[in-house]
Amino acid sequence: MTSTINADPAELAKFSELAHRWWDLESEFKPLHQINPLRLGWIQSFVPLANNRLVDIGCGGGILADAAARQGAEVLGIDLSTKALRVAQLHAMEAETTGVTYREVSAETLAIEAPAAFDVVTCMEMLEHVPDPASVVMSCAQMVKPGGWVFFSTLNRNPMSFIQAIVGAEYVLKLLPKGTHEYAKMIRPSELAHFCQAAGLDLKATKGLGYNPITGKYSLNNSTQVNYLFATQRPFE
């Protein structure tokens, strides 16, 4: 596990600059709002969120954390962007969302503070933005209870994902700001599976996420070529 803060200062600065736009449904974060019901529904196909403790790693402005709390989960959202967390807290107050709190803390630190403390751990669209994704996966595994679930979503690293996620999404369709993703930081499913195995997590299911530029709609599919999700479980002891 990394002994220093597992974060890229440039990545934190990039998202901090956009923090005030997290809850603007027509902003750079529109895709996250659009895919949120899909990923939330997929998570709940494995584990009910009501009355469960959930931690959202790299929560940003709280899009997933807020939605999970509205499903009845007791949610902690963590991030290292002070501005994003302030936006998340302000939105929770304005929307009167109960059951969600936010902390500025790294996954590695929280894993030490709260081992086996959560029923569900989510780490969505975050691993491709940190220097050491394996360390985050290990921390997620340490935070979840035996029998609990850990969910990841990230971007594959191959020519198709470069064309679709960077050239297409950032430069042609302009769904995301230029520079949102770096090709070298994308993670192949085989690599993430190895991280999970090393952390003691059992991979239970994978899913793909696709975008139709004609309809402007996202949907879940069975291809992990570009955006993909992992459902993993910590074995019962």
TrEMBL record:
Pathway: Cofactor biosynthesis; ubiquinone biosynthesis. NCBIfam families: UbiG. It catalyses: a 3-demethylubiquinol + S-adenosyl-L-methionine = a ubiquinol + S-adenosyl-L-homocysteine + H(+); a 3-(all-trans-polyprenyl)benzene-1,2-diol + S-adenosyl-L-methionine = a 2-methoxy-6-(all-trans-polyprenyl)phenol + S-adenosyl-L-homocysteine + H(+). It comes from Rhodoferax potami. SUPFAM superfamilies: S-adenosyl-L-methionine-dependent methyltransferases. GO terms for molecular function: 2-polyprenyl-6-hydroxyphenol methylase activity; 3-demethylubiquinol 3-O-methyltransferase activity. InterPro entries: SAM-dependent_MTases_sf (IPR029063), UbiG_MeTrfase (IPR010233). This is Ubiquinone biosynthesis O-methyltransferase.
